[in-house]
Amino acid sequence: MAWCPEATRYELQPESDDQPAIRPTQFIVHSIIAPWTAKRVYEYWRDSTNLESHFGLGYEGDLGQFIGTETRADANYQANRRPDGTGAVSIETASNLQGSDPWTPAQVEKLIELGVWLHEQHDIPLRICRTHDDPGFGYHRLHAEWAVSGTNCPGDARVRQFREVVFPGIVARAAGTPTQPEEDPVALSKDDIALATLTYRNKKADEASVKKTGKRIPDFYGYVVNTFTAVAGIASDVKKILALLNEKKGA
Q1: Residue 167 and residue 128: Cα distance in Å, rounded?
Q2: Around Cβ 134, how many Cβ atoms within 10 Å?
Q3: What is the number of other CB atoms lying within 10 angstroms of the CB of residue 192?
Q4: Which regions of the chain does DSSP assign to beta strands (E)?
Q5: Residue 92: how many CA atoms within 13 Å on its side-chain side?
């Protein structure tokens, strides 16, 4: 079984030893619909369900691995393990409770790193899966055979990021080509992320709120990320308008 050197190892037992082997041919990304760290995802798989993914990824880029990539995990329905022994590697990524927020810059970076490692380790081809059993890269809702009852996972914002940023980033880095962003986004600093996720780090506080009011603590993180994303879009539009005005001036 293969363990990614960039991930913290939180090995699930007995699943890691008891579940059948696979030959990994796909990488499928998910949103877990919870603002959890990689360690909290591990605890959920360990304590609350008999399902699991291979990896978990927190908002701050903390990557955990729960099962070796050559062992079956349960996150991808018919792609978990096929009759020919091939199967998909899965990752659950922290999200807001609606699954509507984009990945943070730290998450995007770690997804690219992991994608390159899987390509190099298992020769997963650098293409988006054309069919449910076609080797390559994808996201959970891409093919119906990957979800028991259909799914919107990982949300529209992340599907766009996957197609426009994450997958092109994997391809470029695997080829040794540096990538340049098309725009100058307003990036979230570590302090921004720490402030926005502070409430969620305190699991006990969240549980106490549910117990007392029946409600979870509001998703401040998603609000901050969406605000920064909107500001980045406005900044980009202003740059384009200024460029057009300068062109007109010079004409």
Answers
A1: 8
A2: 14
A3: 16
A4: 8-9, 23-31, 55-57, 63-65, 86-93, 136-139
A5: 27
CA 106/CA 204 separation, integer angstroms: 25
* CA–CA separation, 107 and 141 (whole Å): 19
Return the amino acid letter for 235: A
User: Which 3-state string (H, E, C) describes 40-105?
Assistant: HHHHHHHHHCCCCCCEEECCCCCEEECCCCCECCCCCHHHCCCCCCEEEEEEEECCCCCCCCCCCH
Place of tokens 């730290």: 106
CA dihedral 59, 148, 157, 33 (to 10 degrees): -30
Model pTM above 0.85: no
Using CA atoms, how far apart are residues 35 and 57, in angstroms rounded to an integer?
A: 10
Q: Are 73 and 16 in contact (CB under 8 A)?
A: no
Q: Kindly tell me the sign of the dihedral angle through the C-alpha atoms of 75, 78, 79, 81.
A: positive
Mean pLDDT of 103-113: 97
More confident residue, 217 or 47: 47
Residue tagged 């304590």 (tokens):
47
Task: Evaluate whether 2 touches 63 at the Cβ level (below 8 Å).
Answer: no
